[in-house]
Amino acid sequence: MSTPVTSPADPAAAIKPSPRMLLPLLPYLLRYKERIAGAVLAVTIASGATLAVPLAIRRMIDFGFSADSAGLINSYFFALVGVAAVLALASGARYYFTTTLGERFVADLRSAVFKHLCGLDAAFYDSAQTGELLSRLTADTTQMKSTLSATSALALRNFFLFVGAMALMVYTSPKLSAIVLIVIPVMVLPLFASGRAVRKRSRSAQDALARASAYAGENLGAIRVMQAYGAEPATSQRFSAAVEGAYEAARNAAAARAGLSTVAIFLVFTSVVGVLWMGAHDVLADRMTGGLLSQFVLYALLGATSLGELSQVWGEISSAAGAAGRIGDLLRVRPAIVAPVPAARLPSPARGDIKFEGVTFAYPTRPDGVALRDLSFKIAAGETVAIVGPSGAGKTTLFQLLSRFYDPTSGAIYLDGVDIKTVDPAALRKEIKSVPQDPVIFGASIADNIRYGKPDASDEEVRHAARRAAADDFISALPEGYATLAGERGVTLSGGQRQRIAIARAILEEAPVLLLDEATSALDSENEVLVQTALEKVMSERTTLVIAHRLATVLNADRILVLENGHLVEEGAHSTLVAQDGLYARLAKLQFETVAPAS
Asked: Does the model's pTM come out above 0.85?
């Protein structure tokens, strides 16, 4: 099974959010060093232009308001226009670099997260909620983009302004600056202390939204069941309660950030007013000029404003840390089903010999319920073997293990004499194709659904596979033929049509092993005969394992394996098993004995 560091289905178990959670995502950002350098350069130039303004204003106040130097006013104002032009160009460049960097980062991150999700094994999805995973893939990555695009630019700008303003304040008046520098730690420490509460509440808000999204996705995916049972009011009410919970969590996070900003801004500007009061007394005592005080005050305001903005940026970073933690939780999940190094190779072409040797298995989510117990059998290449038994006997589990969606708890499974645990799962699955009892049809065209596992298949190959699955007639009769959209989950198709498309999809790849799990269960009698006839030729060309509750569909199998409670209890042809008068005979008697029709 997968080995998550924290289960995405259990938000309470998640690691406490911290800005350090952003660090694992830095490699996605550092791929674009040129854009980062451009953004930093643009921010540096914009900050330098902003910091030049108080210098010009000081000189204008001290030297520009006298009759002897009236011409200097024009020069200073023209200089300010030049500074404004540089500031505008640098700000535009900063916006471009940071915005495109954020979009590029989130696109790469989403691709990486989705690729990671595609590689996780079945055990992970036994407990994960698709809606919550989608929330991480969309909402959380969007939060990261917002932080990187807007917040990072503000953070850089305000950091440079704060550092520059502090340095120029010291240059302008060391005495007044000393007072400001003493006050700053008193202001900053509460901001960092309250940042933990902001991060915690932001993470709670994101988790609540993810749970609401998961609930909505699950129920919208079963809209017909919901409406058939009249569950719309109860479902809507429950979703509203989930959304309300997400709102409450978001409101708490907003309240924490609002309090953080309020305290920061009050402390910052109160200190500026106090310094201005002291500076006014120095001007009255001729210890500094009015221009110098104006310069100092402007730098103090720039520094105070930058520090206030940085406190809000810290709140944004805290929210992003929650999102990064959730994404990090997901990326730390490691699948148990991986390609070994080095991986063994199957014979080419594969023959289709199958061997189960002492296989025992219990699902990770049901450790007390053993699905298969010490199961051993052999199937020769080209043989058709039926798997029968009561519900819960382990029939579908056998298919899951053969496709290596799970590994046995003990024992081994061999394909053409090679232990499948030593083979790359992707290479193994190329040789095994299955048709499940409830086939998955995607919201694409009929043709694309058939060529799903072989996207480069030609139109003629697709039609040939459809003909062999007795699907060509009904597909050709559709308004747009093979280009007809199937709708989400094949909602526009009947159960029998979906089943035949799934059979065509499995046939298309010509794999040497075919697994049919109640493949004709959704067909009416007429279509069942058509598909069964089509499948007979397909099955004769490869190793085929068939699960069927309707025993009439497996009478012609070469052998029948009878499972009960995970054990292989009987094995043989239909006539042999009936003669043994065991479990199979009882199942056959229940199905084949019919009451004579009344005359």
From this structure: no
